[in-house]
Amino acid sequence: GGREEGAATTSFKFTPTYYRTTNEGPAYDLNLRANRQTQTGWIGFYRRGEEFQQLRLGYEHALELAGGRLVPSVQYASRGFLGASATAEIGERHFGMLGLSRTNLKDYFNLNFDPNDSVLLGAGTRALARSVLTLYQIKDDRLGNRAACDALRPAHIARRRHALGGRCLHQSRPHRRRRMGARHGRDAHLRLRPVFRAHRP
Fold first, then answer.
1. What is the chain's pLDDT, residue by residue, as a tens digit (201 residues)?
2. DSSP the chain
């Protein structure tokens, strides 16, 4: 009985997404995410007609450290893409955030406006009941694409709420000064922290 109650369980989340843009053909993305305690894995597939398609695999592990947390992750995608990132939370009740993401600069598309090779700076708090609130900004620090600088420098406000029964509900809201073109999509969920951020191939 006690052993069964303490056994780790794996939860799954499947997210189909359809995208329609003003300057490209329609596209869809399928993503299956698995969570088991502090470990997360995912597999996804993106396709935009016959123009671009890509399969991706990823893994991350949240590590509890003295005075904070560290979340390293790795990802592989077809077309030769490899990437890794690490995000640190420094502090407990109130904390600072520092992250770094690096890739081999191969084509990769994960349907958001944050750059792949970037730094993350932010802060957060666990003072709210059953919630974690974070505010952070992601900035391209490698490719120096000045033309896209403003569009690829969003600030994110995110809230992760722990509901009764141990389930987590994620809400995030990016704030951008302007965007490059228009993108319209329907997504079944919003993620707290996208680990790998795509520049357009």
1. 445 555 679 999 999 999 888 888 899 999 999 999 999 999 999 999 999 999 999 999 999 999 999 999 999 999 999 999 999 999 999 999 999 999 999 988 866 667 888 999 999 999 988 888 999 898 888 776 544 444 445 566 776 665 444 444 444 444 443 333 333 333 333 333 334 444 444
2. -HHHHHS---EEEEEEEEEEESSS--EEEEEEEEEETTEEEEEEEEEETTTEEEEEEEEEE-EEETTEEEEEEEEEETTTEEEEEEEEEEESSEEEEEEEEEE-------SSSS-SSEEEEEEEE--STTEEEEEEEEEE-SS--GGGTTTT--EEEEEEEE-TTS-EEEEEEEE-S--SS-EEEE-S---S--SS-PPP-
In single-letter form, the type of residue at position 155 comes to A
Q: What is the DSSP string of 39-79?
A: EEEEEEEEEETTTEEEEEEEEEE-EEETTEEEEEEEEEETT
pTM confidence score:
0.70
What is the Cα–Cα distance from 111 to 66, expressed in whole angstroms?
A: 35
Q: Which residue reads 């596209």 in tokens?
A: 27
117 is written with which tokens?
């090779």
